[in-house]
Amino acid sequence: QVQLQQWGAGLVRPSETLSLSCGVYGGSFSDYYWSWIRQPPGKGLEWIGEIDHRRTTNYNPSLESRLLISIDMSKNQFSLKLSSVTAADTAVYFCARYQLGIGLDYWGLGTLVTVSS
Amino acid sequence: SSELTQDPVVSVALGQTVRITCQGDSLRYYYASWYQQKPGQAPILVIYGKNNRPSGIPDRFSGSSAGNTASLTITGAQAEDEADYYCNSRDSSGNHVRLFGTGTTVTVL
């Protein structure tokens, strides 16, 4: 059974960098896109971006200038860094596995990140 | 356009059928996947591809697509189906960008 466990700082100051990581337990790490999605309080889901085992990334154009998604194959984990955050970046951040032809089939539980001084 | 549009709220009587739609240019070229999200929980995948259900998803959930519209149908809605539902697909720009729909809240009366 595949499990995604995510961790990172829950409070980030404005203008600083949000950092989250997601560990993947069970299943292959090489055959999927590893994704980040966020959800502001009371709002809908927003796709942030994804990375595969070849380190190929795809980013949401609205976030691309501030975004870095990386992967560590030796630890079966991937990470998100979002720089220059503002209150608008306050959201629950989810990591998830994307399988081609299927979709986002496994999700982490989510991490609430609040941007506040 | 780079948007997937859904009706904000849909209501259905217990045991009746409800259809949730998702409209966008990219749906002419790519299938949508559908996600159910209950309060305080991560979304779960309920439909993908032409009309496929992951293991454990009840067969009252089904999917279809025509033109620029994808649909999720719940046949015989149950109280536990009350949730938010989101479609997801690729952007039509040709870039590898994925989009979520605006979301539909389903209320079971």
Describe the structure.
The complex is a heterodimer of chains A (117) and B (109). Chain A is 0% helix and 54% strand. Chain A has 117 residues and is an all-beta fold. Chain B is an all-beta fold and 109 residues long. In chain B, strands 2, 4, 5, 8, 9 and 10 form a six-stranded mixed sheet that branches. A four-stranded antiparallel sheet of chain B has the order 1-3-7-6, with no helix packed on it. The termini of chain B are far apart. Chains A and B meet through β5, β9 and β10 of A and β4, β8 and β9 of B.
List the helices and strands and how they pair.
The complex is a heterodimer of chains A (117) and B (109).
Chain A: E1 3-8, E2 11-12, E3 18-25, E4 33-39, E5 46-51, E6 57-59, E7 67-72, E8 77-82, E9 91-99, E10 103-107, E11 111-115
Parallel strand pairs in A: 2-11
Antiparallel strand pairs in A: 1-3, 3-8, 4-5, 4-9, 5-6, 7-8, 9-10, 9-11
Chain B: E1 5-6, E2 9-12, E3 17-23, E4 33-37, E5 44-47, E6 61-66, E7 69-75, E8 83-90, E9 98-100, E10 104-108
Parallel strand pairs in B: 2-10
Antiparallel strand pairs in B: 1-3, 3-7, 4-5, 4-8, 6-7, 8-9, 8-10
Give a quick set of tags describing it.
heterodimer; A: 117 residues; mainly beta; 7-stranded mixed sheet; 4-stranded antiparallel sheet; 0% helix; B: 109 residues; 6-stranded mixed sheet; globular
